[in-house]
Amino acid sequence: MISTPGATMSRGQHLxxxxxxxxxxxxxxTGFYFGKIALTQxxxxxxxxxxxxxxxxxxxxxxxxxxxxxxxxxxxxxxxxSLLGVPVQFLLQFYGLSLTTVSHAALMVGTMPVLLAVAxxxxxxxxxxxxxxxALTCSTAGVALIVLGGTPAxxxxxxxxxxxxxxxxxxxxxxxxxxxLNKQLMQSHSPVVVTSYGLLSGAAMLAxxxxxxxxxxxxxxxxxxxxxxxxxxxxxxxxxxxxLWNWGIHRVPASRAGVFLNLEPAVGSILGxxxxxxxxxxxxxxGGGLIVAAAVTLTSRHHGESKVIQS
Length: 311
Prior knowledge:
This protein is mainly α. It has helices at about 5-10, 10-30, 30-40, 45-65, 70-100, 100-110, 110-125, 130-150, 160-185, 190-215, 225-250, 255, 265-275, 280-300, and strands at about 1-5, 310. The chain has one domain (about 10-300). The chain has a two-stranded antiparallel ribbon.
């Protein structure tokens, strides 16, 4: 059947949905900062594994309290989403972060609302008009300017790399599949069930991959501030954000909620510049402005509420 979210949910529920998405975007913006701290004492694979071990501590009680009643087909969708959203996306994204700066990686995330709009056009049969295509062009140009506008970070003397920047963008493209598949599952299951079972399944896949390829993660020699960064990245930047985001987009159209993803590059860039000594060249500032302007234009324009198709 076809249902229209605006017809079945009150204005208050929509506002709460937008507030949840806004808080999720803000907390996501701290993820690269905490990840960069952890990467000073361990490799990418082990850092991501620890992140999801801390995430699992929060989600296991939710799984116990909310049994999943998924069909065989829905389990296949959930496991595919988990594979894309956890081991594939996060290993690519944080390997990219290890090659670039926090500010550059965060600004790349500004392409996500535009990518989401394109995905909706291709897979949900939404129409992208001339303004939409202009926004996509500006966003793409912004990415190119950021890649070309890197300068070395004060704290490390190393600047961003094209490979690192593009790996972050590739991880975002993969994340689209995760978002759209989760949206599909939440048409018939609660955000808590989809989030908790999805992230725990992804964490199990991640553990198998990391332990098989990199062995056991380090325990001794890891400083207290790194443990705190890992805990924050798992609890605040993964478990809490995904629960908030899925709860939010269950109540508002994903394309409209996409504007709050712009909080992530803003917060991440500020943290990188202020706390890690990152430096953004003039081209990178212009590129970041183009990305944010394109995303705001695309997601804040007035249009009717999106329709959700349930099977």
